[in-house]
Amino acid sequence: MEEQVASYAPRGGLPALPPPVDTTSPFARLRTRFFATPLDAALSILFGLLAVYIVWSLVQWAIVDAVFVGNDRTACLDTPEREVGACWAFVAARFSQFIYGLYPIEQRWRVDWVFGLGAVLIALVAIPRVPFKKLFALLLLGVYPLVVLVLLTGGQFDMSGSGIAIVFMLAAAATIFLAFGRSSTVSRTLPMKIALWLTVLSAVVGVVSFYYAPGGSESILTFRFNTFAQIAFYAALVAIVLALVATIATADDRLAAVRLLVPTAVAIAFVLILTAPLGIPHVPTNLWGGLLVTLVVALTGIAFSLPLGILLALGRQSSMPAVRFLSVVFIEFWRGVPLITVLFMANFMLPLLLPQGVSFNQLLRVLVGVSLFAAAYMAEVIRGGLQAIPKGQYEGADAMALTYWQKMRMIILPQALTLVIPGIVNTFIGLFKDTSLVYIIGLADLLGTIRRGFNDPVWITPSTPATGLVFGAFAFWLFCFSMSRYSIFIEGRLARGRKH
């Protein structure tokens, strides 16, 4: 055996192996990723040279040959000595118009306050470690929009009795909705059933009061109500009282039921603030423009499309045939119509359908159209999240004897929204970029204001259009990229929470 083993043993030992190939240094990674084969090396060199050429051309156009200071077009015209690149002097000269549009110069402090308050509140809500999140979220979603409306327009609106009736009808609906979330038995009480029907009556009669006003009008406080508006207003008030009575009678915590007065308090504050004389001049919306209009349209669409999309998604999965049918019809209709068609309909066709003497601001019509359009797409995104929730989550919520709204609010919707964060943010980004379409119907958003500047004879040069469009593209990219990165941060934070 020893002889056989010895015959197979190498004489003189094995040859020394070469050292292992370095795969961790920068040069090694470069070699393995870009120069592993002759074809990889050739393609890497070709595309590398192309990238260097493109980057250098952009740097030369945007910085080296650019004009940063000038009073008119002569500063940005080519000369025999050199070829002019970007005309940043045009952007600097019209920068304030790109931000404010034609908003009066002496009143632009109001826009600055709106931008500043919005940035601070968004930061306080977005930063995870900041305390009092609920308070800041309430200020951002409830108080801030009202402040924006009053500051930008000047307030002192002339509200009709029909409009006030609709506001209190919405307060009654919000009160009933909150009552359903606090008690599982309140919906079966007689006062709550009467409150539901009175709210429906208030909604129907309130809408009719815009079109038909029988008899004379009566003054309540300083507001004029026609007969139908009075019926809608008093029906909403009685519905609020009955909802409070039903909740107090069935709730374990009587003090918590008093919180149902919040929607009514908000409605009263809303009417008083909008109609109160604040002493600041009125600025019509046709003077708004630039980044101001872009942010107003985008943020309004984002703020309204998410809650409306949630309700539509829940309605599409509802077991009630009427609710499901109406939700499906709404979603499929708005998803099947291009946004530009929606804007044209809101701008030109809607005024023809309104009764004589009733009109809505052009910007308001656009905001409604954009919000409804985005809500249809948002509903499908959220429906995907609802369908991804395991069936056991629904069964567990039912086993805890939770009401439908308690189950959705505390168990189902938080998980569903977490799953579809990328889709939600993608819809937000698409909506933000689609705001540039409002220029077609005459609203001067950021891109529209920039394009109007191209026709200014003081700044007509060959490089002016390219410079303005690059500036606009960078502004849109900055906002969209910020939303994308924040969504990635939220996804990672929620993923870490699920792992632990």
UniProtKB/TrEMBL annotation:
The chain crosses the membrane at residues 41-63, 109-128, 135-157, 163-182, 194-213, 225-248, 260-280, 292-314, 326-350, 362-382, 410-432, 469-490. It is a multi-pass membrane protein. It comes from the Bacteria. Signal peptide: none annotated. Residues 291-482 form the ABC transmembrane type-1 domain. Its main location: membrane. Keywords: Cell membrane, Membrane, Transmembrane, Transmembrane helix, Transport. One of its GO terms (cellular component) is ATP-binding cassette (ABC) transporter complex. InterPro entries: AA_ABC_transptr_permease_3TM, ArtM/GltK/GlnP/TcyL/YhdX-like, MetI-like, MetI-like_sf. It is found in: Cell inner membrane; Cell membrane. Pfam families: BPD_transp_1 (PF00528). The keyword Membrane applies. PROSITE patterns: ABC_TM1 (PS50928). GO terms for molecular function: transmembrane transporter activity. This is General L-amino acid transport system permease protein. It comes from Aureimonas jatrophae.
